[in-house]
Amino acid sequence: MDIDARGPRFAAAVTTVVLAAALITRSPWILAWQTAAFAFGAAAGVSRSPYGWAFRTAVRPRLAPATEFEPPEPPRFAQAVGLVFAGLGLVGFALGPGWLGLAATGIALAAAFLNAAFGYCLGCEMFLLVRRFAVRAE
To answer: Which of 45, 71, 83, 125 could form a disulfide with 38 if both were Cys (CB 3.0 to 4.6 A apart)?
Structure first.
């Protein structure tokens, strides 16, 4: 079943704020929260992640009915990619080296910002590329 396309974009906006806070403060605790949010999104689906729940319960009821829908698989894959980068950032902030925390968190922040500001989901595009190559390989 397709999902409201505004949900992942809302989640990307919240993720942008959380990752910016983690990057500015270099806080492993803030980044741990975002890593957990990515894990929920990757494992259970974007609509069941903490930010998906917030969108579904607090934001969507105040909006007009959705007119644009998308399949849930690309955003779910994007959550898994975010999980990898946030996990690397968490390791860098908690255990070192610090540059790993900064670089990995910065990459995740850039991707979240692109989705929030412009609706361009890098992880979703990666999903499509992986799928295209998998079909060619068969």
So the answer is: 83
**Cβ atoms of residues 116 and 12 within 8 Å:** yes
Main-chain dihedrals φ then ψ at residue 121, nearest 5 degrees: -100, 105
Q: pLDDT per residue over 16-32, tens digit each?
A: 999 999 999 999 999 99
Convert the pLDDT of each residue in 86-102 to its tens digit: 999 999 999 999 999 99
For residue 67, with 0-12 CB atoms within 10 Å meaning exposed, 13-18 middle and 19 or more buried, which class applies? exposed
Helix axes 98-118, 28-44, angle to 10 degrees: 50
What pLDDT digit, counting tens, does each position of 62-77 carry?
999 999 999 999 999 9
